[in-house]
Specification:
- The chain has a single domain (14-85), classed as Winged helix-like DNA-binding domain superfamily/Winged helix DNA-binding domain (Arc Repressor Mutant, subunit A), CATH 1.10.10.10.
- 49% of the residues lie in helices and 13% in strands.
- The chain is built from 4 helices and 2 strands; from the N terminus they run H-H-H-H-E-E.
- It has a two-stranded antiparallel sheet with strand order 1-2.
- The radius of gyration is 15 Å and the shape is globular.
Length: 91
């Protein structure tokens, strides 16, 4: 007992499980955290994201670029540059 098969999720907070699921879908840990932050807070600027995740801005910009290339986020101008999520409808 206690053995886990491949693809099983570790118990934890709902956020931890969400991060694990996003990583299973091909996102890195930072991309997953960034995605969840934008989902929770809505559009934010890169400096705001950097402050929330306590990461250097260049790391945030790289992660945002990867999320965008994977189709998960989009940036647009509204005063300051803001980054938001691109939510796809499945049906």
């Amino acid at each position: 007992m206690g053995e886990r098969g491949p693809g099983t999720l570790d118990a934890g907070s709902p956020r931890d499980v969400a991060v694990q699921l996003l990583k299973f879908l091909g996102l890195t840990g930072l991309e997953a955290e960034l995605y969840l932050l934008l989902l929770e807070k809505g559009p934010m600027s890169a400096p705001e994201i950097s402050d929330h995740l306590v990461k250097h801005r260049p790391q945030i910009h790289v992660a945002l670029t990867r999320l965008s290339s994977k189709g998960y986020s989009r940036s647009w101008a509204a005063g300051l540059r803001s980054i938001g999520l691109l939510i796809h409808s499945c049906c």
